[in-house]
Specification:
It is elongated, with a radius of gyration of 20 Å. It folds into two domains: 120 residues, lambda repressor-like DNA-binding domains (434 Repressor (Amino-terminal Domain), Orthogonal Bundle); 58 residues, no CATH class. The chain has 181 residues and is of the alpha+beta class. The longest helix has 27 residues. The protein has a three-stranded antiparallel beta sheet. It starts with 12 loop residues before the first helix and ends with a helix.
């Protein structure tokens, strides 16, 4: 990494991220560490979120998993990725949810997304909205998509609407029969 005598000219977090990503010597190493840290952080944040949504305390989750509250606290703080996938699923099931799918995307696309949006939320929907904007302005045909709040029916057409001034991705659903008309 950088030596103390190397200067960083970034004044904001976004500028720092872009500066580090584009560093010819350390950019690739920084990128991989950054992406890994963001993923692991999102994974444990999701555990905490589902526990809260289920109205459970750490002690209640611990009881369901036959362990101690301190073990649950350690799981919720595990941004190093030491938790097994099996334990992650057990935790989710104890909260009454099932982890859905884990999607994989090209590192090149993630790199471009982060460079263009260094302080944007790095959710799957935000990334895909960005990817769609890069490719087309036409509605995207999706077989199924599930968000935390709204299921979209199979066979319907959805249009991902993103406005730079509004960081929330809006999903507009069009029933199949209306699209055909």
């Amino acid at each position: 990494m950088r030596h103390k005598d190397d200067s960083l000219t970034a004044k904001t977090t976004a500028e720092f991220i872009v500066q580090m990503l584009t560093d010819p010597e350390e950019g690739q190493e920084f990128f991989k560490a950054y992406v890994k840290a963001k993923f692991l952080e999102a994974a444990v944040d999701t555990l905490i979120k589902v526990r809260h949504q289920a109205g459970l305390t750490q002690a209640q989750v611990a009881e369901r998993l036959n362990t101690k509250q301190t073990a649950i606290a350690r799981l919720e703080a595990d941004t190093e990725g030491t938790m097994s996938l099996s334990r992650y699923v057990d935790y989710a099931l104890a909260c009454g949810v099932k982890p859905h799918e884990i999607s994989m995307v090209s590192l090149k696309e993630v790199y471009d997304y982060i460079l263009e949006n260094p302080q944007a939320r790095e959710t799957e929907l935000d990334f895909y909205a960005w990817a769609v904007r890069q490719a087309t302005t036409e509605p995207l045909k999706i077989q199924t998509i599930q968000t935390m709040s709204t299921p979209i029916q199979a066979g319907n057409t959805v249009k991902l609407v993103y406005q730079p001034t509004n960081p929330i991705l809006n999903v507009e659903e069009y029933p199949q029969e209306k699209v055909a008309a």
